[in-house]
Automatic annotation (TrEMBL):
InterPro entries the UniProt entry points to: FAD-bd, FAD/NAD-bd_sf, Geranylgeranyl_Rdtase_fam, Geranylgeranyl_reductase
Residue ranges annotated for the FAD-binding domain, each copy included: 24-347
Lineage: Bacteria, Bacillati, Actinomycetota, Actinomycetes, Mycobacteriales
Organism whose genome encodes this protein: Dietzia timorensis
UniProt-recorded name of the protein: Putative oxidoreductase
Pfam families (UniProt xref): FAD_binding_3
Gene3D superfamilies, sorted: FAD/NAD(P)-binding domain (3.50.50.60)
A GO term for molecular function: oxidoreductase activity, acting on the CH-CH group of donors, NAD or NADP as acceptor
UniProt-annotated stretches for the region Disordered: 1-22
Length: 446
């Protein structure tokens, strides 16, 4: 007996990496970024059997600015990570600069609170995935999903075979009643199931880096709206410095583009040209480290985000704000919404009819994010015209009132309950633009 218990004690503890996934589950979520982990947490809280698989081991990096708006912080609290988030740097607002002007604009007061933050994604995503596991999701890190899609009788595509490949060549076929693709901008799940990303609508290309900085604990985000390349030409985007409070900052640049008006710039070179502009102000030392760049699909500019028994969320569904590149909050919020939709679907007596995710999920996304995305994506499209920003930038930056309103709208801290003029205008224009999209046959998430 002694020998048996010794063997059990000496056996390696199961970790997200070393144990095989099950052969079946109610919901398989592919991708444990903010969108997938949030969905897994909310589903597990409803008592649903959920497997959360990510191809990377826990604590992976993700190319990102690491910035969290007050709205994202509010969602972290809902997930039960208040204490964890409370120990991170507190960011009060933005220091906006450009066209000869500078404004310090605090986050607006409202139901989300006035505290933002910035946390390296290695830490943030680990905390979110561990939270999902703590709530009961079966987490398998280091397991890559491969999905084969088959055309169904309704003219859609459904996942017919799902295989998870793990360490040392391990493979497991898994059967799930619902598959969720939360696997990022390139979404292999989306590709297998017929997602299309419309690059004639605005998207962004951005690069981030880390730098050692004296002002690493400054409670303001630095945001430079007059972003110039090495030749001095203004680019349609912005440069950022997000203080991380750990001796370093996340420094990066992003530029908007469409397939007709591609970003005429190499973002890594743009980042290199940006560093000298902020070196002294932030007390930056050495050269940028861990420079990495990526595309950002934005504003719901994708079609095919759901089928009868599958759905895409987060970047895979284009859930990024076209005006500031923020996607973490949208992923977290969408995870909560998707859990509700999937729970209803699983209990529906007509899961392929009225309860089919094909119809319900795009409707929910349009209702929740449609108006602000429709307006933001039109404004972003205007910014891709080379003459637009130089023409309006100086006037816009000259007005503190306008910039305060812009921070509020761009930071996504306007809600349906707000009754003031700025939010009424933002919502009204948003609905108008959604209508125009519909008339032009370009609805979001269609
Ligand atoms: C340069 C840059 C700066 C940004 N700055 C900010 C910012 O400051 N604030 C902000 O809110 N947003 C920012 N964003 C956007 C933000 O990074 C994304 O919106 C966010 O990461 C989306 O989360 P997600 O969960 O949808 O996808 P991801 O975070 O990309 O997670 C997808 C996960 O899926 C996994 N995966 C992929 N394929 C498979 C597979 N086949 N099998 C298993 N797992 C798989 C990946 O390993 C990954 O962990 C920035 C983006 C970029 C590129």
């Amino acid at each position: 007996m002694e020998g048996v218990s010794e063997t059990a004690e000496n056996a390696p503890r199961p970790t997200p990496e070393n144990h095989a996934p099950p052969a079946e589950c109610d919901v398989l979520i592919v991708g444990a970024g903010p969108a997938g982990s949030a969905a897994a947490t909310w589903l597990a809280r409803r008592g649903i059997d959920v497997v959360l698989a990510d191809r990377a081991p826990l604590g992976r990096d993700k190319t990102c600015g690491d910035g969290l708006t007050p709205r994202a912080m509010a969602e972290m609290r809902r997930l039960g990570l208040s204490e964890w988030a409370g120990e991170r740097i507190s960011i009060q607002g933005l220091r906006l600069r450009g066209f000869g002007t500078e404004h310090e604009i605090p986050w607006p007061a409202g139901r989300f609170g006035t505290r933002g933050s910035a946390v390296p994604r290695r830490e943030l995503d680990r905390a979110l995935a561990e939270k999902a596991a703590e709530e009961g999701a079966r987490l398998h890190a280091g397991w890559t999903a491969r999905i084969t899609g088959t055309s169904d009788v309704m003219g859609g595509v459904t996942p017919s075979e799902v295989t998870l490949s793990g360490p040392d060549g391990a493979e497991q076929q898994i059967s799930a009643r619902v598959v969720v693709g939360a696997d990022g901008a390139r979404s292999s799940v989306g590709r297998a199931l017929g997602r299309r990303w419309h690059r004639d609508l605005p998207f962004a290309v951005a690069a981030r880096s880390y730098m050692t900085a004296d002002a690493h604990d400054r409670p303001w985000i630095g945001s430079d709206l007059e972003l110039r390349d090495a030749a001095g030409a203004i680019q349609p985007g912005y440069g950022w410095v997000f203080p991380l409070g750990d001796g370093s900052v996340n420094l990066g640049v992003g530029a908007l583009a469409t397939s007709d008006r591609p970003a005429n710039v190499n973002v890594r070179e743009l980042l290199a040209a940006y560093v000298p502009k902020v070196r002294e102000e932030w007390g930056l030392h050495g050269e940028p480290r861990e420079v990495a760049s990526a595309f950002l699909p934005m504003g719901g500019a994708v079609s095919g985000v759901a089928g009868p028994n599958w759905a895409l969320t987060g970047d895979a569904a284009g859930l990024i704000n076209p005006l500031n590149g923020e996607g973490i909050d949208y992923g977290l919020e969408a995870g909560r919404l998707l859990a509700g939709v999937v729970a209803e679907h699983l209990s529906s007596t007509d899961p392929l009819g009225a309860g089919a995710l094909t119809k319900v999920w795009p409707q929910v996304l349009r209702k929740e994010f449609g108006p602000s995305f429709a307006l933001a994506r039109r404004l972003a499209a205007l910014l891709t015209y080379p003459r637009f920003l130089p023409a309006v930038g100086p006037t816009g930056m000259g007005s503190e009132t306008l910039m305060t309103a812009a921070v509020r709208c761009m930071g996504n801290v306007v809600t349906e309950d707000d009754a003031d003029l700025v939010s009424a205008l933002w919502r009204g224009f948003g609905r108008g633009h959604r209508l125009i999209d519909r008339v032009q046959g370009r609805p979001l998430f269609a």
